[in-house]
Amino acid sequence: MKRIWKRQPIYYGWYIALTLAITETVSYGVMVYAFTVFISPMEAELGWTRSEISGAFSLFFLVAGVCAFPVGYWLDKHGSRLLMTLCSVGATVMVLLWSQVSTLPEFLAVMALLGVCAAGVLYEPAFTVIATWFRHNRGSAMAVVTFVAGFASTIFVPLTDALLVAYGWRQAVLILGLILGAISIPLHGLVLRRKPSDLGLSADGAAPIETPAKEKPIELSRVLRSRYFWILTLGFALSTFSLYAIRFHIIPLMISVGIHPSSAAIASGAIGVTQVLGRLFFAPLERRFSSKTMAIGVFVLAAVSLAILMLGASMIIIVLFVTLFGMAIGAHTLTRPLMVADSYDTAFFGRINSAMVIFVTVAITVAPFAAGVVFDLSGSYQPALLMATGFCIVAVILISALPRKN
Question: What pTM was estimated for this model as a whole?
Answer without folding.
Answer: 0.78
